[in-house]
Every structure is written in structure tokens, then in C-alpha cells.
Amino acid sequence: MTDNTILGGPPSAAGETEEPTPEPEPEPESIDPPGDLETAVHRSRLYSLLSLGFDRPGDDFAAAREDGAYREDLRESAAAIDEDVADAAAAVADALEGADHQALHGQWASLFGVEEGVTVSPYELTYLPGPLMTNVRRLADISGFYEAFGLSIDEGQTDRGDHVCFLTEFLSHLSHREAALRMDGDDEGIEVVVDARRSFLEDHLGRWYWRFADEVGDHDDGDSGFYAALAELLAALVELEVDRLDLDPDWVPDDPEVTEWNEDVFGDTGRGCGGCGVDAGGPGDLEPGPVPDVDPAADADRGSDFDPDVGGDG
Amino acid sequence: MPKVENWQLGREVEYPYEGARPDDQWAAVFDLNKCIACQTCTLACKTTWTHEEGQEHMFWNNVETKPYGSHPVGWDQRTLDDMGAGEWGDDGTYEGDTIFEAEDVDWDDPENHPQETMQARDDVAGFLPDADDMRYPNLGEDEIAGDTMESISHFDEETHPVWFFYLPRICNHCTYAACAGSCPVPAIYKREEDGVVLIDEESCQAFQQCNEACPYKKAIYNPAESISQKCIGCYTKTEEGKAPQCFENCLGKIRLHGYINPPEEADDSDPMEEPTNPLDFVVHQKELAKPLYPQFGLEPNVYYVPPITAPTDYLTQMFGPGVDDAIDTYRAMRDGDEPELEGLFKLMGSTEWSITAFEIDGDEAVGYYEGDEVGRVPITEPTAERDRYDEDEEVYRLDIT
């Protein structure tokens, strides 16, 4: 502002004429997106089956179960992807073998339904740190992903977009598109959908799937243990994805306590009014679990064979 | 000597930069008689702009109860204390010191320029709010001032013996913004096209001079981003002709968004005859709306219609001289003696558009944005009265109006 006035435009923009333009950052080297046609198809089917499985058991799920297609498809697709995922899928198929519809429906309601106050939340926002006020943007981000790929939630669907069923269905859709693009040899398109899957996993499901699996494992007291097995399968698949896509998700805290305010600013006394986000408090009466990336001794105490640190063998 | 003309104080005032006015000046009228502190404005802003980590304490729009409420704590009282007492002359000239004058700094000396000293906040009256000061956004809410209150108390006086009022506050997009005037970088600037004061986040180096220098405390530090942030006047909306979020969402319809001229360039036309700039009409022609603490010396551009039942000594401290006349004008409007004002105040909140002109068309008030009609309301709402006894239904009605 040489003329000593506060009037003008943004100084950072004005600086461009006075300072040499910085060298443009080199474009990152193009690396072929990992994956192939076959795994894309199977991954799409696997995510889709997960979505169907985590939804309230209805006619579609019953039909898929009764003729054995659900178990068969699950085994087949998982086997085409990875050994650990295949093992997890086999556990799901086994659990499903003895399960009848009524028992599954009851167990689903007990875990995820409003019938018992949503014992385990299937919603991403529940697991994120901070009050709901600061997390609505995460929901907007999720919606942005859907919108970018021309998807929207059905009018009849009353669930929020961060429900695990929607997240997995979206990942199924991306994988399905990837398969179609690979058939067409559309490299640019493949890169777009793989990048989207990468970002979506890193920014969303990849942050909290392990917490979700832990919660379901802790609370699924049904005879079949279907939902605990299904959650383990989800964890195994996402874990493999994190490894194969070389992702570094920012883990959600394993402590369900809501940080009501920024404690750096307010200290303890700034919390507790609850006026903006008490609902984001997450599932109640949880046992605090260990942080995912800490010492192995703590992992051994977890009472779960799921370890988010151990990726698939890709 | 970089003195600038401040019409609100009736004299030139000290400021580190040369006086220059934007092409248009973003401005607002808030009618304090209608604010109910529902905080819808606060939340409309918060959910739009300050919902991220590091912004938890940040309210670009807040509503506080006066006299005891304040956010950050004591922002006005502490600044006034630091400035020292100042008097207004009979001709409306402010004779005390502004925040840039209180420390007796010679702003003409290049060594004292904020870009040289990099610590202009030490040369300006005021204080730096700390974390504790930001902690209580609803401090003093609904606390009464004046006498004690009994259940059988009745107020017959025009000025109530027991009182409080609500003060909604946003950035004033000051003509001589202290945030911009104190920034060492400088990263803060006033847009030439509309006078909106912005912090360039790319340039901000977190010197935190603005956090102290702004007497309204509306340049706020974000510890997560290590930059300061402030109200942007929803310029993304106003550029499209739409009123800012806190205006559009105001339930009490207390807010009017438009653009104001300095008095010598003010629109002096008659809204009974032709479209007239509503800001110029309310502020300059009718002198009904007043700037907030004009004695700070920054020429703030949010103009308040004083609450008519509060003591005028307090209001004069807050809004400068002319409060008594403004209250008389407001009462006259309520009595039907100011149809132009009555029409304009009915237009407030009736449209999501900014209003750059308005006129009275018969018994209707019409609002325009750059020539296009954007609002039309009856000055007196038509009423209908039904019979107390409905013969068809054979019932008595309790509600007949």
C-alpha cells in the first residue's frame, strides 16, 4: 500500500506483481491407480453386501439369504480380494448359516435400532471429536462426495448421509464405476474414481471403522454373532484398502467424551454447557479402549482380534 | 499529517493512514426497539462462517444485554476507561480523544507508522482480550439495571426506571478501521467497491495487533489456524444483492442492509416523491439511527435506532449526541406522524435483498435493489374484525381480530 491507504484489494494478490512468481509446484508423478478390473468388481460387490447387511433386515436381505446367494457372493468376492478378508467373510457366512430372520431382526434392532436407543451408532459424526456444531461440515463433505458423482439419498430414506450403509454403498458405487472404466480403458476416469475412493476412505470411513467394529463386537450378544462378524469384515476390508491405497487416516479418538469447547482456549470450565453438541456425545457407557496405534501390550488387552495397525497383505 | 475527516465526530481525527472513502460503503440500520435477543442472527452467522475448530469462541455476530452484558468481557467499558472521559460540544463536535489520539502518538512521524513499529496496539487505547474474556458470550444476559423490580411495578414514565436492552453487534466495517490501521503487515484492507473490511488470511502473520486495536473486538484470533478472522459482511451475498445471513435470518426484522454516503454526498431526496437511499434517509435526513460508540473515532457503519425506554445519559454515551431527538422521532413514527419512516421500517426484514432505495407509493412502501423492485409492504397492515357471535355456527368467538 504505497499510497498509505487502507483501501484496496487483498495484499497477497497485490504481491504477485511485485514479487517474482514462485515456481509452480511440480505435478506429482502420475502413478497408475492400484487395482484391476476383477478386484474392482468384487470390491464393489463386497461393499454392496456390507451395506445390505448393515441395513435393517428387510425383504431384500431375506431373499438374498434364503437362496444362499448372500453367503456365496460374500465368500467369492472376498476370496478374490485378499486372504484376511476371505477369512473374515467366511466367519460372516458361518454366522449367517444358523441365523433366522426373526433373530437377526431382533439383534439388529438391539444394536442399531431406536428400539433400544441406538446402542451402537452407525453414524460417522458420532465418532468424530468435538461438538456437533463443528462436525456438520463433515456431513456436508460426505454429501459433496455423493453429489459429485450424481448420487443422492432416496426421498423415502430418512437416515443421515453419514450412515455406514450409505458410506459403503457409495464405495461400492465408486468401485463399480472403476470396473466399468477399466473395461473402457478410460485411464483418466479410473484416476478420478480411485482418487475419490482414496479421499473418501481417508477422510471418512477410514477414520472410524475400527471404533465401529469394536463397538459392534462389544455389544453383539446375539447367538449368531453375525453383526460382530460383519463389522470385522468391514474392518478387514477397509484396513486392506488403507494399506493398498497407502492412506493415512486421522484416527478418531477412542474416548467417547465430547470436547465441548476448544480446551486450549477454554480449559475445563469451558465445557459442560452442552448447548451446542451434547447429542454428539457418542454411544453412552462405553468402556474406553486403547488408542489404535499404541503399544502391542494394550492391543492384546483389547479382547478383539481386530488390529487396525495390521494391514492386509495387499 | 494523516488526519481524516470523521463526520460522526464533526472534526478531523488522527489515523495512521490517509482518509479515502470506498465507492460505496456497506452499512446497516439495527432497530434496537425490536430486538428480542433470540440469537438467530448469532447462529445464522456461526453455522455459516465460524463452525470450525479454532473458532469456538468466535462470534462475528453476537447479541448482548446492555448495560451489564458484554462479549468479550467488558469490551466497551474497558476501552472507554482506557480512553479517558471525553465531552461532546454543543455543536455535536467530539472534544475528547479517540482511540488513536488517547496515547498522544504522533502519527505523522514515519517511525510511528504501524508498519514500522509493528506494535500499534500499544499506541492505541484499548486492551487485548484474553481467553477468559472470550469465555462468557452470554454474560449479564437479561440482567436489569436501575431500580429493583416488584411484581406490582408499573412504568408510567417514558424512560423506564428498570431497564435493559439488547445490543446485536457485528463488525462495523469502519471507514477508519482500527484493525486495518494497526496491522503491521498490512494484511487487512477495506474493499474499494463496497467498504467491507477484510483480513487477507494468506497475508496474516498473527501479530495480533488487530485483536487489541479493534475497540469492538471483532477481529478475533483463531488459535487453530494461527490467523485472525473477522466478519466479512457476507460479501459473497451482498455482491449478488442479497442481505447478509444475520440480516436475512433476523426474526424480529430489526435489520436493514444498504449503503451509506457521507453527509455532504447524502441522498436528500424525498421518498414520497422518488426512490431514496434508505441509509441516508434514516441516518442523515432523519438522524434516527446512530453509530455505536462514535467517540472511538473509527466512523463505524452499523447504525442503531436507540431503545426509547432506556435512560438517555447511557444512550448518549453509547451512541453520541442526538439520542433524545432520535427517540422523539421514533415516537412520532409510532404515532403515525412519520409515514416515510414507518413505511421503511415495515420494509425491514420483508425481503432477503439489500435495499438501495425505497419510496412511498400511496399506502405502500416499496424497496428497490439497484432499480429493481424487491419488496412492497402496506404501511398499515389491513385488519379485519369478525362478529363475536357466529350465527351460522352458533358459537361465540374469542378471537375476532
From TrEMBL, chain A:
Regions of compositional bias (Gly residues) in chain numbering: 273-284
Region entry Disordered, spans: 1-37, 273-314
Positions with biased composition (Acidic residues): 16-30
SUPFAM superfamilies, A to Z: TorD-like (SSF89155)
UniProt keywords, alphabetically: Chaperone
Keyword Membrane annotated: no
InterPro entries (UniProt xref): DMSO/NO3_reduct_chaperone, TorD-like_sf, TorD/DmsD_chaperones
Pfam families referenced in this protein's UniProt entry, alphabetically: Nitrate_red_del
Record-given protein name: DMSO reductase family type II enzyme chaperone
Source species: Natronobacterium haloterrestre
TrEMBL record, chain B:
Keyword terms of this UniProt record: 4Fe-4S, Electron transport, Iron, Iron-sulfur, Metal-binding, Repeat, Transport
Major site of localization recorded for this protein: other
GO BP field: anaerobic respiration
Location of the protein in the cell: Cell envelope
Cofactor(s) annotated in UniProt: [4Fe-4S] cluster; [3Fe-4S] cluster
Residue ranges of the TM segments: none
Any one cellular-component term (Gene Ontology): membrane
Pfam family for this entry, one: Fer4_11
Molecular function per GO: 4 iron, 4 sulfur cluster binding; electron transfer activity; metal ion binding
Span of domain 4Fe-4S ferredoxin-type: 26-55, 195-225
Name of the protein this chain belongs to: Nitrate reductase beta subunit
